[in-house]
Amino acid sequence: MSERYNAKEIEAKWQASWEAEGAYQPDPESEQPKYYVLEMFPYPSGKIHMGHVRNYTMGDVVARYKRARGYNVLHPMGWDAFGLPAENAAMERGVHPGEWTYSNIATMRRQLKSMGLSLDWEREIATCHPGYYVHQQRMFLDFLEAGLAYRKESWVNWDPVDNTVLANEQVIEGRGWRSGAVVEKRLLSQWFFRITEYAEELLQALDGLERWPDKVRLMQSNWIGRSTGARLFFPLIGGEDGGVGAEIVGENDGPEAAKPLEVYTTRPDTLFGASFCALSPNHPLSAELAVENPAIAAFAEQCNLLGTGEEAVEKAEKIGIDTGLRARHPFIEGRELPVYVANFVLMDYGTGAIFGCPAHDQRDLDFARKYELPVIPVVCPADSNAADFEIANLAYTDDGKLINSDFLDGLGIEEATETVIKRLQAAGLGEATINYRLRDWGISRQRYWGCPIPVVHCSDCGVVPAARDDLPVRLPDDVSFDAPGNPLDSHVAWRDVPCPACGAPARRDTDTMDTFVDSSWYYARFCSPRADEPVTAEDVNAWLPVDQYIGGVEHAVLHLLYSRFFMRAMKRCGYVTIDEPFAGLFTQGMVCHETYQDGDDKWLYPEEVKGDDKGGMVTVASGESVHVGRSVSMSKSKRNVVDPEEIIDSYGADTARLFMLSDSPPERDLEWSDTGIKGAWRYLGTLWRMVSEFTDSDSGENVAPGAPAADAAVPGENVQRAIHQAVAGVTQDLEKFHFNRAVARIRQLTNELSDFRSNKAFNTEVYLEGLKIILRLLTPMTPHICTELWQRLEPQQSLFAMPWPEAEARYLQEDSVILPVQVNGKKRATIELPSNHDKAAAESAALADEGVQRAIAGKAVRKVIVVPGKIVNVVI
RNA sequence: GCCCGCGUGGCGGAACUGGUAUACGCGACGGACUUAAAAUCCGUUGGCCUAACGGCCAUGGGAGUUCAAGUCUCCCCGCGGGCACCA
């Protein structure tokens, strides 16, 4: 009797063997072309989840496939190890963030190893290790020297109870997630990377990223948000209540109210329809006015209180407050526009001030109706009459001809835009501008568990970079999380240092870097993970760019855009010679599962529920009926999770890997199902049995291993064709990331072989070839079982050393083809013809067919369309 | 609101450049093995009509282009994602 498939045993055996051989380290001496496969490295949160299993399985298929195709493959793994959860664990459980992180890494490394991934673990890096972040600090200083890092004031979410800055996701409905206190906005001095300097280039270069999904390129393009328009100046006149500035002056210093107001617009053509100006509550002029005017101060404060979440309540309402100032229209003598502070004007976009043209912008219209401001249409649609064109409650934003606009009357929007900009320029009142939505990247975080920013603040010298010889600026280990706020702030011994420039007492910057900085260059560090400098030219030139990057679409914008910026910044500082870090990108879908809730709406784990005899769901514990919710991405909070470790324990890594690749296209979400994983398990069992039966001499088929009888009673030409078609098909599928189709094809070939085998007089040589091809095609997906079975079939040959199989052209061609015959577009019959038939032969064969004749029913044939090898269509 | 993407059996999904719709898997049903169950194996399985041959209808809905449409065009409906007072 053959032994049963014991996944656990063979997986442990082969994993140990691969590790001992160092099978997955790239060969430095190799003459082969390089291929760098990378999956987004995980945050060490505790245990791996199904999303990781899916992501890393896909990457492993690519890595193993490319290796078989003769590439020298680099496939490393590391840890995105800084971040907030480690600090939360410290506060909740009193465990040090470093200890917590490294213990999670140990667990997850063990779990990943149990998946049998072809990773080069020698290159493992953790971003929280000083050996990693010392280089990041060096590059920070380089960026500082190159003018790519700078300091400015910026707003943060401030939790007044915990005395800490909150990330956006920690603000829930305007309140701190932990304290529940109403979150305030505070202005802090912070570090920024000048990503906007590359806005145009980052946008333009998207076109060259041909192996990126269009979706991601589009999202980045929208994020950069290029718009063209004009900046223009409105001279200001003081309000009736006096206060600020009397007459305008065109000076650039002095009080804001004395300067002309600078606004940005994408519609300079609508200038004659302007009926008000509006400032952001955070505009310098607003702040200045607020000093004298408590109402403005209160309004601005109210706007600032309105955190990101709570605006849902007041969403629709556009509100503002009249400043009393008036702005002079640049072209209309005597027209004065009221200047408001308005909640819908953003300080971070354009100039933080606008002119409102209610007729052609919905927000402006809503605002104008509320405050009873004039609505002057200046663009008239082609099908309307200029004289009686009016705006009701819908702004008109489409094309048309200019009206009510003096020298612009009669022009189209485009010409009007050009004309008005020329006039503004001539008058020194404005100019054409390109504006970007993209903002500079704020990297300061008021946190402990991150890369320290290597500068010192000296009361005499200002901001002084840390001496390069003193790097790394290490995080102190002896920190306490008992007091609110950033532990680095209260760690006096660490914080207080002499100024590197003058030696006077000074303070370290106690902020740490955004963890996106860590992940913006780790792929480069993998090329020379232990080098004394951030990267070595030789290694990055050899390996970069990453040929295939794989990860979740949730990183479509920030991580991928920051990395693209970082590569350019590193280039400017002389580290690399390329711009784009990732030549190919694939974004995989999530792993989803149904959700379950009991009568009290409490979330239940899948193992806490079972089906009842009526087709519903009940709890295992009490039999209480369970509400089955829609299937959503697995998450701890909804408890709709399945632990990969348990799955690998009971079915083995190969089964888990196979299921991750079957059924669903990789870019779409995958629905987890117990029956699906069982199906994958069943298939591997079948494959195991087929090979075992073949090698067992007692199988009753009289087949000795290694010496199959050349019994040609059933020659199996069709099977050979099927084999080679499978090779061609699977190869094509893998090239295109169609893993689910590749799996389906291999299963189909397995079915055909099995049918062939059920014939008592099958050709064993062909059968053996089929089995071997299946193992070779399947080994990137399920490497353990394939290696084991291969060894049983071919003990002298190493499957690992086998090149990827090539399909032989002669088997891809059929001698004859079966052509469908349609009559008036409906299939009525099929005819068999030699594959090299000509049109005439197909036509006469089709017309001679009985079924076709019946369908024609004696009517006249008007036309016969023949696409040789494809179809015949008889038109009557 | 704007911008993308997707709608195919009971379910996940195949279908290359328009050319035999429903590959492969799951589930279901029937059978074999078993004292029985599990596991395994074999067979059937889009819907409707028919004893059968065969026919009709089906790719969210409606139109159009074409000898031929799941595939191309337009409109509508539904679902999902991204961005969001972006001037």
User: What value does the average pLDDT take?
Assistant: 87
Poorly predicted regions: 240-252, 307-314, 698-712
Which structural class should the secondary elements be placed in? Answer: alpha+beta
Report helical residue fraction.
Answer: 25-40%
Percent strand equals: 15-25%
> What is the straight-line distance between the termini?
64 Å
Keywords:
single chain, 876 residues, alpha+beta, five-stranded mixed β-sheet, four-stranded parallel β-sheet, 28 helices, 38 strands, RNA-binding
What would you say this structure looks like, in words?
The protein has 876 residues and is of the alpha+beta class. It is 35% helix and 21% strand. The protein is built from 28 helices and 38 strands. It has a five-stranded mixed β-sheet with strand order 11-14-15-13-16, sandwiched between helices. β7 (171-172) and β8 form a beta hairpin. α2 crosses α20, α8 (284-292) crosses α9 and α20 (653-661) crosses α21. The longest helix is centred in the C-terminal third of the chain and has 22 residues, at 674-695. The two termini are 64 Å apart.
